[in-house]
UBC core domain-containing protein (Neolamprologus brichardi), 128 residues
Amino acid sequence: SDPDEGLSMTFWRILMQGPPDTPYEKGVFELYCQFGPEYPVKPPLVRFVTRVYHCNVNSVGRICHNIFDRSYNAHVTMRDIFDAVYGLLIIPEPDDPLDRTRFDPFLHSELFQYDQLVIFAPTRCLSI
């Protein structure tokens, strides 16, 4: 039997630990990364599998960050992409939300209120 049978270098499953000193610090978040036939000319598709309450992530896990569109080029590494996603968990970008109607009430409120919503939002993250 082939030990590499069923393995695909075009699909990655990622487990990302929540950053310390953030509302996400006690979570482990599952993401997937799909490399299309035009990679690296076009960016990979990266999505959260774990539900995450975040202004830059929508209800189906799509991530809003300019590294996936305006700032992407063939020299962007996967490390750059994962650093950008991790960075959003540390510092959200409320001026560029994916679901404006969902986050409009909080966009200009105190960060504390946003943190409380993140902490108490129902998620399916793996607890550590």
